[in-house]
Every structure is written in structure tokens, then in C-alpha cells.
């Protein structure tokens, strides 16, 4: 099974690519949140994470979960989420993203109808954080880590082992879901869909000049409504998000290509080199040239 770095398969829409169309629909990730923050994105797959080092905060829609080493989170399909490192001391994650059919099988199977479908259709269940202090949650964390280790090693027959671990994880989640959850309001669901549309627009046009009005227009709402949606869901303004996204795209190009720094800045929507360098240092803690050298790129 391929071991992916963080964000390796996030497309320009913010939607994770469709690796689930492969014969064995699962991806393993080793995420370093200092080098590669997990951008806002969503996908059709279920996701499970264990924190290997440090402290981070996962935000799923507007729901925040701060996790430390040994803790984790299970995220339902199709919910916007992101993860940031909290302490500037480093944070690493082991995460798995898998299509529900890996456990559920065909739509007419008992596994799908009794366990997977109710989970996926429950719009009140965004995610659940997992702690070592609760027996069943510790068991779930062990299942996540066992899935990750087994998938990475790819020993003979690992596919059966991975499916068994994931089946046990789903059983634990389904049988311990909170009994009383409040379904999100129509407004919250509507905001989530609008944000997805606007993020897709930003991810497709970040190299161009972008205004709040253009971002709002992509979702057919007013600029003031666009600002409200971004602040309530993502916690920042649309233009600030554009700048953050541009910097992260520039960081990827700095470490994956030998293009000139000034050309990378231009490709990522920065017209002035001084503003690019200043913005990059504010967000990444070093100048573009320092960042490139630190990553071993000449």
C-alpha cells in the first residue's frame, strides 16, 4: 500500500482524489503538520487518525477537537475538515482514509445496510475524538494504528488483516455513537455546501487576482454573506484564506521543483517579490530561500 505524505492527493477543488476507485480503496498517510498542514478539504471516504507526536487541533465543520500524543479522531464522510499544529514544537500523525465499501461491501450486504449506511446517513455525526482513558476508545485507537502499520508493511495477506481491523473499528464506532446528537441546522448544512463551492473556486484560481466579490459570486451569494460563511466555518476571511493557500502551494513548489523563487511567487499569485517573501516568512517561519535550503533543495 502506498504511504502518502500529507495532502499528496488533494485536488484543486479541495476534494481528496478518488483512490477509492482502486481495487483496495485505502490510503495511509504520515503527516508532519509543521511541514505540511492539512488544508481544508473533504472526501467521500471515512478517515481515522492517531497523533504520534505533539498537539494539534482538528476542525470538522465548526467543531474543534484538540488532540495530544496517543489520542485520535474518527471523521465521517463528506465533512469539511482541517488540522493545525498547536505548539510549534512539531506534530506528526498516522492517518488512514478508506472508502466505506472496503468494510461494507456491496449495497445489498448486511454489513452495508446494518452498519455503514446508518453511519453515513447520520448528518448529526461529524466526528468523534478518541482518548486512551476510555476502554472502547483505546481499543479503537489500537485498531487504527494496527491498520496503519499493517497497510504500510504489506506482509502477505495484509489486505485481510486491514479489513478485519477496520471492521472492528466500525463496530466500535457504531455501537458507541452518542445517543443524543443534534442534527445540524439547514443553515449550517447550506453554509457547508457554499464553503465547498467557494474553496473549489479559490483552489482553481489562486494564481490569478481574486476578490471577495468573485469568490462570493461562485456560490451565488453576496460579499457580506461570503464573509459571514468564511468567518463562521473557517474562522478567517476569504482573502486571508487565499493568501494562506498561495503560501502553501508555493512551499510545495519550493521543495518539489528547482524553479526560481521569483517565478514560484508569480505562479502562486504574488506580483511583488517583497510581499511574497514577507508573507511566506510570517506563515512558514522562514524566507522562501531559507525554507528551500532547509528542505535540502539547492
Element layout with pairings:
Blueprint: E1 3-5, E2 26-32, E3 38-41, E4 46-53, E5 55-60, E6 63-68, E7 72-75, E8 81-85, E9 92-98, H1 101-104, H2 110-121, E10 127-130, H3 135-153, H4 158-175, H5 186-205, H6 212-218, H7 223-233, H8 238-256, H9 261-267, H10 273-284, H11 288-294
Parallel strand pairs: 1-2
Antiparallel strand pairs: 2-9, 3-8, 4-7, 4-9, 5-6, 5-8, 7-10
Helix pairs in contact: 3-4, 5-7, 6-7, 8-10, 8-11
Task: Please provide a written account of the structure.
Helix content is 46%, strand content 18%. It has 298 residues and is an alpha+beta fold. The protein has two domains: 3-175, Regulatory protein AraC (Jelly Rolls), CATH 2.60.120.280; 186-294, Homeodomain-like (Arc Repressor Mutant, subunit A), CATH 1.10.10.60. Strand 5 and strand 6 (63-68) form a beta hairpin. It is globular. The model is unreliable at 4-14 (pLDDT under 50).
Please supply descriptive tags for the structure shown above:
alpha+beta, Jelly Rolls, Arc Repressor Mutant, subunit A, 6-stranded mixed sheet, 4-stranded antiparallel sheet, 18% strand
CATH class of the largest domain: Mainly Beta
Main sheet? 6 strands, mixed
Q: What is the terminal-to-terminal distance?
A: 31 Å
Secondary structure category = alpha+beta
Amino acid at each position: 500500500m502506498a504511504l502518502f505524505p500529507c495532502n499528496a492527493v488533494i485536488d484543486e477543488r479541495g476534494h481528496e482524489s478518488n483512490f477509492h476507485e482502486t481495487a483496495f480503496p485505502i490510503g495511509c498517510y504520515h503527516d508532519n503538520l509543521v511541514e505540511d498542514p492539512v488544508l481544508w478539504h473533504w472526501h467521500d471516504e471515512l478517515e481515522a487518525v492517531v497523533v504520534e507526536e505533539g498537539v494539534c487541533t482538528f476542525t470538522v465543520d465548526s467543531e474543534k477537537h484538540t488532540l495530544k500524543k496517543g489520542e485520535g479522531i474518527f471523521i465521517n464522510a463528506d465533512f469539511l475538515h482541517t488540522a493545525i499544529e498547536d505548539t510549534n514544537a512539531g506534530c506528526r500523525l498516522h492517518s488512514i482514509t478508506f472508502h466505506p465499501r472496503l468494510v461494507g461491501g456491496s449495497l445489498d450486504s448486511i454489513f452495508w445496510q446494518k452498519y455503514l449506511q446508518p453511519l453515513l446517513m447520520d448528518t448529526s455525526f461529524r466526528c468523534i475524538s478518541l482518548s486512551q482513558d476510555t476502554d472502547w476508545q483505546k481499543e479503537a485507537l489500537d485498531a487504527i494504528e494496527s491498520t496503519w502499520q499493517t497497510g504500510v508493511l504489506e506482509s502477505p495477506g495484509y489486505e485481510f488483516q486491514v479489513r478485519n481491523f477496520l471492521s472492528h473499528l466500525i463496530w466500535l464506532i457504531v455501537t458507541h455513537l452518542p445517543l443524543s446528537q443534534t442534527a445540524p441546522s439547514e443553515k449550517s448544512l447550506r453554509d457547508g455546501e457554499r464553503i465547498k463551492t467557494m474553496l473549489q473556486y479559490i483552489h482553481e484560481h489562486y494564481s490569478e487576482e481574486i476578490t471577495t466579490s468573485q469568490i462570493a459570486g461562485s456560490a451565488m451569494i453576496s460579499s457580506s454573506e461570503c464573509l459571514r460563511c468564511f468567518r463562521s466555518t473557517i474562522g478567517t476571511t476569504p482573502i486571508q484564506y487565499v493568501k494562506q493557500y498561495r503560501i502553501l502551494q508555493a512551499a510545495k513548489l519550493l521543495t518539489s521543483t528547482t524553479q526560481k523563487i521569483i517565478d514560484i511567487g508569480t505562479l502562486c499569485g504574488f506580483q511583488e517579490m517583497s510581499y511574497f517573501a514577507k508573507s511566506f516568512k510570517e506563515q512558514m517561519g522562514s524566507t522562501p530561500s531559507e525554507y528551500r535550503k532547509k528542505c535540502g533543495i539547492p
